[in-house]
Fold this sequence. Notes:
Layout: H1 7-15, H2 19-46, H3 60-76, H4 86-102, H5 107-112
Amino acid sequence: MHHSTTAVQVLGDIADIDANTAKLLATVLQPFLSISILLMIIRIVLSWYPQIPGNKMPWAVAYKPTEPILGPTRNIIKPVGGVDISPIIWVALLSFINEILLGPQGILNLLQRKIDLP
């Protein structure tokens, strides 16, 4: 038995979301994505100062929630010339997801405006 989900099936499932559920998802995702992007930007700036102890306050506020994502990313995409580009990749990815889901023509915004036809 093979359980594979195609992109078409996922998009079909997303299109079946009603307007209220789309609004709820947008309400939850907007602050989550915004905070995640902000923390990754802070990590980019902190990467310029490798002597800063990431496990001490106030730096731990940015290090603790992002390191579980950045660590494995660093294992896949090695630092380039000693520069850790993993937070840059995550800012780009999170910004893309934010735009696709929550932008003016984002999926969740379009679903909130969806009119059910008889």
